[in-house]
Amino acid sequence: MQKNMAMWDRIGRVVLGIVFILLAIKHGGMLFDLLGVIGLVFLVTAAIGFCPLYTVIGFKTGE
């Protein structure tokens, strides 16, 4: 699995992931639960530096 995300992309995902998860915890409800899951996905993809969706659409922010 080759990394396809630049550092700025990974940092942005960490920030958004944390915000989404905190919103989900604070507000609850189905929409915010979905937002929490998206936040978790952002954190995981940022941690590994690989986004499967980028591969599918042929996009990459890294080298």
What does this structure look like?
It is built from 3 helices and no strands. With 63 residues, it is an all-alpha fold. The two termini are 14 Å apart. The relative contact order is 0.26. The mean pLDDT is 95.
List the helices and strands and how they pair.
Layout: H1 7-27, H2 30-48, H3 52-57
What is this entry, summarized?
By secondary structure, this protein is an all-alpha fold. It has one domain (7-57). The protein contains 3 helices and no strands.
**How many H/I helices?**
3
Q: What is the residue-mean pLDDT, rounded to a whole number?
A: 95
State the share of residues found in helices, binned by percent.
over 70%
H and E string: HHH
Broad shape? elongated
Secondary structure tally: strands: 0
Strand content: under 5%
- Work out the radius of gyration: 13 Å
Q: Calculate the terminal CA-CA distance, rounded to whole Å.
A: 14 Å
Provide the structure class.
Answer: mainly alpha
Largest sheet: none
Features:
single chain, 63 residues, mainly alpha, 3 helices
